[in-house]
């Protein structure tokens, strides 16, 4: 009896033991029910045992081309022919570790596709089985038990022919085969991506050569020092040496808030850290073990609550636009071009976002691997349908369901753009009548907090981390975290602007306070109280749910709604005190660390890094033909490699797209110096 048989058969009695009707069942009825369930379990086991290379030998009901190829493999295997042996050897097998979340057995993908001769060519397909626990006794997996096994088949065999190799499917399970699809429809996106990349490389190369030559000519004696024309400035926007110097420059303006650089850099690293732990769940052979570690370790609570890293971005964005916006109005004589602000922001952000969408569209052709096609095709197809919603920054609202969004991690950009537009309505009031401006900001803040609270009550929402942990520990939601089926929290609350603007408004108020920082004096007692409040707010936001996670206990509905509506603004309040304390000299070593000039290059790469890092992690995982085993060392290596590779690609991204777009926007839309400081 193998591991899978032990799991399925022993849980028959366990289901009866834990049934509320156990005591009321007569013995004969109980025995009859258990016998029926045992037979159903045996049917499942018999079918699962057929998912192995023997299906290539006992074939029937297939077409002549597939039959001929299978016959060649069967005959070749009997005489130990190399290609046939590789076909059989590349199959995945159901192994140990199912109770710890080892549900995927991909086999040897590259060994399979490398098989090629005049009779057949290898094709890697996955066989997916879902056992319905409502008709069986698989209590260990509650609703369903899903298994995926990789197999190697002749390329000429169709999906239907491969399905027929495994015979009749038991009534209490669903079964499907996924094979590589024809990717020719994605060629157009690859051609466009290649063309755009070549154009950008040409522009950067020519501009760099031009900039080098003109800089050498200026050094010659007697050469007149002429002013730069607009056309010359446009060319210099693409200069590699200029953009590189700008990227690695640590020079700061006197009115900059230096600790913000550290907060932004740490936030980006936090995002990658969280994704390095959570994205690999589908690719792990002990995913449930890792969930136990995440929910019971104090040091890993920032990982499982990593969504607060995005709130750091919202806070910083609100602070900077308010702080620099008020400074711009003051220096510009009460006049500011609001349309130029909006256009500049759109042009600065959108070329990089558009480039990411183009990469996503061509994604299925950029890599190969056992899971790459499935993931990349899914993302590409969503972008084919909804790319336009990203470019007008409404993708957090339409499509309404997060799994349908193009590059769904870019929901943050849509919120940030919408918040910026709200801020432009507040900025004149904050300048002309600060009391009315602050009152309006507080009214919007309170309205959104109340709306989140009411919506959470109406939809019975648990905090996302509790919702996921309960489902995963009951082994019900492994697919939700991997196949991205619907999570109500993400759709109803997580990505919606009325639930996320509160932290942004905390940043706006903080920016207003720092604009008048010369009027602020913090006593020692006030500093002590401020740091205590900061620690308490951070604890409530990130660490307070740990007891519920450990015992897998949902919160009271009202308490859950209170957490959903207040945890993020409380975290914003903690960041507000941290920033004010650093600016006013009450930050100590933390202020010294966050204000380190070394963070400046990281900050300038942060936008591109945020856009690219999910694809980098998926590439590192989905192209592996072996599963990853969760451990501190393994995840640390994945995290470090993801940071380094994302940083390298972000540098290329900045040099080709982001830096030229930003400088061109300044030339055409920012005519007055104060407005230039808005970013």
Describe this structure in words.
With 679 residues, the chain is mainly alpha-helical. It has three domains: 178 residues, no CATH class; 46 residues; 407 residues, no CATH class. The protein has 29 helices and four strands. Helix 10 packs parallel to helix 27 and helix 22 packs antiparallel against helix 24. The C terminus is likely disordered.
Structural category:
mainly alpha
Give the tally of structural domains.
3
Segments where pLDDT lies below 50 for 5+ residues? 6-27, 136-141, 476-485, 672-679
Beta content comes to under 5%
Terminal Cα span: 65 Å
* Global geometry: globular
How much helicity do the residues have? 55-70%
**Biggest sheet, in brief?**
4 strands, mixed
- Lateral strand order in the biggest sheet: 1-3-2-4
Average pLDDT level: 85
Radius of gyration, in Å, reads 29 Å
Instruction: Give the number of DSSP strands.
Output: 4
> Number of helical segments?
29
Summary keywords:
679 residues, mainly alpha, four-stranded mixed β-sheet, 4 strands, disordered C terminus
Short description:
By secondary structure, the protein is mostly helical. It is about 65% helix and about 5% strand.
Topology:
Elements: H1 3-17, H2 27-48, H3 64-78, H4 82-89, E1 104-105, H5 109-113, E2 122-132, E3 144-154, H6 159-164, E4 173-178, H7 187-218, H8 230-236, H9 240-248, H10 259-278, H11 287-296, H12 301-304, H13 308-331, H14 338-362, H15 372-391, H16 411-432, H17 434-458, H18 464-473, H19 478-482, H20 488-494, H21 497-515, H22 524-543, H23 546-550, H24 557-583, H25 588-594, H26 599-604, H27 606-622, H28 632-669, H29 673-676
Parallel strand pairs: 1-3
Antiparallel strand pairs: 2-3, 2-4
Helix pairs in contact: 1-2, 3-4, 7-14, 10-13, 10-25, 10-27, 10-28, 13-16, 13-21, 13-24, 14-15, 14-16, 14-28, 16-17, 16-21, 17-21, 17-24, 21-24, 22-24, 24-25, 27-28
């Amino acid at each position: 009896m193998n591991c899978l048989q032990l799991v399925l058969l022993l849980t028959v009695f366990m289901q009866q033991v834990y049934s509320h009707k156990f005591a009321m069942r007569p013995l004969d009825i109980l025995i009859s029910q258990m016998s029926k369930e045992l037979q159903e379990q045996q049917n499942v086991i018999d079918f699962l045992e057929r998912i192995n290379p023997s299906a290539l030998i006992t074939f029937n009901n297939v077409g002549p081309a597939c039959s001929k190829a299978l016959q060649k493999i069967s005959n070749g295997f009997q005489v130990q022919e190399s290609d046939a042996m590789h076909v059989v050897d590349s199959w995945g097998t159901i192994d140990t570790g199912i109770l710890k979340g080892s549900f995927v057995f991909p086999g040897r993908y590259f060994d399979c596709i490398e098989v090629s001769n005049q009779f057949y060519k290898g094709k890697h397909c996955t066989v997916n089985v879902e056992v319905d626990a409502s008709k069986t006794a698989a209590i260990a997996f509650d609703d369903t038990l899903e298994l995926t096994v990789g197999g190697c088949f002749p390329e000429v065999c169709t999906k239907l022919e491969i399905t027929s190799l495994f015979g009749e499917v038991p009534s209490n399970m669903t079964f499907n085969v996924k094979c590589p699809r024809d990717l020719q429809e994605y060629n157009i996106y690859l051609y466009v991506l290649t063309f755009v990349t070549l154009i950008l490389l040409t522009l950067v190369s020519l501009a760099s050569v031009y900039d080098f030559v003109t800089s050498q000519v200026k050094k010659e004696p007697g050469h007149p020092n002429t002013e730069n024309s607009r056309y010359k400035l446009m060319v210099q926007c693409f200069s590699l040496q200029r953009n590189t110097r700008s990227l690695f420059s640590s020079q700061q303006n006197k009115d900059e808030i230096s600790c913000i650089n550290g907060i932004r850099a740490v936030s980006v690293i936090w995002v990658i850290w969280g994704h390095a732990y959570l994205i690999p769940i589908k690719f792990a052979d002990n995913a449930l073990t890792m969930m136990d570690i995440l929910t019971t370790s104090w040091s890993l609570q920032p990982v499982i609550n990593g969504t607060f890293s995005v709130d750091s971005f919202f806070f910083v964005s609100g602070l900077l636009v308010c702080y620099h916006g008020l400074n711009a109005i003051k220096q510009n004589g009460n006049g500011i071009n609001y349309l130029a602000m909006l256009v500049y922001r759109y042009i600065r952000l959108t070329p990089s976002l558009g480039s990411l969408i183009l990469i996503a569209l061509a994604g299925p052709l950029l890599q190969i691997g056992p899971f790459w096609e499935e993931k990349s095709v899914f993302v590409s197809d969503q972008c084919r349908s909804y790319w336009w919603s990203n470019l007008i920054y409404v993708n957090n609202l339409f499509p309404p369901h997060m799994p349908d969004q193009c590059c769904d991690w870019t929901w943050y950009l849509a919120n940030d753009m919408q918040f910026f537009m709200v801020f432009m309505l507040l900025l004149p009031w904050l300048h002309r009548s600060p009391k009315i401006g602050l009152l309006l900001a507080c009214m919007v803040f309170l309205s959104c907090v109340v709306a989140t609270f009411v919506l959470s009550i109406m939809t019975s929402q648990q905090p996302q981390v509790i919702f996921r942990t309960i489902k995963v520990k009951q082994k019900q939601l492994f697919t939700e975290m991997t196949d991205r089926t619907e999570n109500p929290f993400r759709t109803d609350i997580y990505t919606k602007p009325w639930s996320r603007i509160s932290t942004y408004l905390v940043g706006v108020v903080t920016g207003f306070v720092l604009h008048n920082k010369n009027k602020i004096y913090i006593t020692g007692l006030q500093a002590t109280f401020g740091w205590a409040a900061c620690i308490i707010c951070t604890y409530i936001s990130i660490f307070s749910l740990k007891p519920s996670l450990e015992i897998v206990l949902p919160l009271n509905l009202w308490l859950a709604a209170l957490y959903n509506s207040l945890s993020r603004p409380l975290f914003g309040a903690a960041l507000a005190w941290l920033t004010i304390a650093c600016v006013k000299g009450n930050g100590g070593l933390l202020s010294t660390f966050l204000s380190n000039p070394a963070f400046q290059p990281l900050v300038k790469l942060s936008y591109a890094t945020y856009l690219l890092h999910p694809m980098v992690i998926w590439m590192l995982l989905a192209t592996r033909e072996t599963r990853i085993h969760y451990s501190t060392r393994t995840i640390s290596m994945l995290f470090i490699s993801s940071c380094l590779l994302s940083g390298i690609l972000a540098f290329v991204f900045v040099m080709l797209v982001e830096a030229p777009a930003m400088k061109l926007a300044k030339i055409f839309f920012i005519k007055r110096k104060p407005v230039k400081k808005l970013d």
